[in-house]
């Protein structure tokens, strides 16, 4: 009776070995204290002193800003995303208009009595 080889397990082991080899070639991650400071202006007018954000497993920061000052979304890029955004904006506009109308009706009834 022979024992079969689990090739999926062997492949996972080889991939893990390759990742370890790559990490060893790059060297250790620099400590967080050595990362550049964010520098974004706070509400108090001083530059932010938090270290630039980097994702777990990455060596260099993404855009030089901390997790709180990473930047706003650039918005939808595709035609489908823009259409979804337009539908959501119209839906919210309708809700706001109906709320204003409801408040105006309630306010008118309250002043009439």
Account of the protein in words:
- This protein is mainly α and 113 residues long.
- The chain has 2 domains: 16-72, no CATH class; 73-113.
- Helix content is 48%, strand content 0%.
- The chain has helices at 7-26, 79-112.
- The longest helix has 34 residues, at 79-112.
- The mean pLDDT is 85.
Care to give the gist of this entry?
By secondary structure, the chain is mostly helical. Helix content is 48%, strand content 0%. The radius of gyration is 27 Å and the shape is flat.
Topology:
Elements: H1 7-26, H2 79-112
Kindly list the characteristics that best describe this protein:
113 residues; mainly alpha
The domain count comes to 2
Outline the low-pLDDT stretches: none
Helical stretch tally:
2
Going by helix content, strand content and strand pairing, the class is mainly alpha
**Could you state the order of secondary-structure elements as H and E?**
HH
The total count of strands amounts to: 0
DSSP strand content: under 5%
The biggest beta sheet reads: none
Radius of gyration: 27 Å
Query: What global shape is seen?
Result: flat
Distance between the termini: 95 Å
What value does the average pLDDT take?
A: 85
Helical content stands at 40-55%
């Amino acid at each position: 009776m022979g024992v079969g080889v689990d090739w999926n397990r062997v492949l996972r082991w080889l991939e893990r070995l390759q990742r370890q080899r790559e990490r060893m070639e790059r060297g250790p991650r620099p400590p967080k204290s050595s990362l550049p400071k964010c520098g974004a202006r706070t509400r108090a007018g001083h530059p932010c002193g938090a270290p630039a954000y980097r994702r777990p497993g990455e060596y260099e920061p993404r855009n030089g800003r901390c997790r709180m000052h990473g930047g706003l979304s650039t918005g939808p890029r595709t035609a489908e995303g823009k259409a979804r955004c337009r539908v959501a904006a119209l839906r919210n506009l309708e809700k706001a208009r109906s709320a204003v109308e409801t408040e105006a009706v309630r306010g008118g009834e309250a002043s009439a009595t």
